[in-house]
Specification:
The protein is of the alpha+beta class and 133 residues long. It has 6 helices and 3 strands, in the order αβαααββαα. A 3-stranded antiparallel beta sheet has the order 1-3-2. Helix 1 packs parallel to helix 4. The chain is elongated, with a radius of gyration of 21 Å. The termini are far apart.
């Protein structure tokens, strides 16, 4: 049984659309301390069930983590809209059925690199290469 199973039960039985909660309240629900990464890294609260057993806990209850405020140590569990969780599960099924391992990381860095206006990437860098050696 997962450490986060009590969170699944708590969310499932709430019947609420939005559940504002602090990190310490999550600890009370699970009856254990959250890992340090939950307090330091925003991705710990992502809604990716294939990477995080904690995310599987709220997703299986039909909720998504949102409005995560790392400095205030709080978030909102929001009832997932129809179809939001089905898309995630279908992607996971595709992965399990032999999808390319590169399909999971394709585009993972999209948006992380930007090129300053006016920079021409086709111009030489000033580095000289001697291909005749």
């Amino acid at each position: 049984m997962s450490k986060y199973a009590p969170l699944t039960g708590y969310l499932s039985s709430s019947g609420m659309e939005y559940i504002p909660i602090t990190f310490s309240q999550v600890e009370e629900v699970i009856g254990d301390k959250l890992p340090r990464s939950a307090f330091e890294y925003r991705p710990w609260w992502s809604n990716n069930p294939s990477n995080h057993v904690n995310a599987e806990a709220w997703l299986s209850a039909g909720y998504k983590a949102s409005e995560v405020d790392m400095s205030e140590r709080k978030l909102v569990f929001r009832k997932a809209l129809a179809g939001e969780l089905a898309v995630k599960r279908n992607k996971q099924i595709g992965k399990d059925q032999g999808a390319s391992p590169y399909s999971r990381i394709y585009g993972a860095l999209k948006g992380t690199v930007s090129i300053a206006p006016g920079v021409d990437l086709t111009l030489p860098t000033g580095e000289k290469w001697n291909a005749q050696q």
